[in-house]
Hints:
This protein is α+β, with helices and mostly antiparallel strands and 135 residues long. The chain has one domain. It has helices at residues 17-29, 40-45, 49-57, 76-86, 91-97, 100-115, and strands at residues 8-12, 35-39, 65-67, 73-75. Strand 1, helix 1 (17-29) and strand 2 (35-39) form a beta-alpha-beta unit.
Amino acid sequence: xxxxxxxxxxxxxxxxxxxxxxxxxxxxxxxxxxxxxxxxxxxxxxxxxxxxxxxxxxxxxxxxxxxxxxxxxxxxxxxxxxxxxxxxxxxxxxxxxxxxxxxxxxxxxxxxxxxxxxxxxxxxxxxxxxxxxxx
Length: 135
């Protein structure tokens, strides 16, 4: 993942309709191709040693995970902020969420949403469960 490609790799659970829908929104907003969006199920099949190590430590399906070109990982609310920062249309939101009072609410808010994502599945509607990350 290191080298000249400085895109942020985003790993999402392709078996989760809400996660897939969010990944699709990220892909639609990523006109500058600043993200490499991958279903974590693909990444687990890849030869990424860092993904295998992380998988041994935790269940990757429980949260969004990102890794930058230097190999630095983030998960949950911090991962979401890093994605938002890469998308020009959402970067101001990320800046606001990094302010002290709001920053304290990011992780609990993310954990609440992730823990209740099955309840939000209706938001995915009839969206076909397809994977993003063909580039």
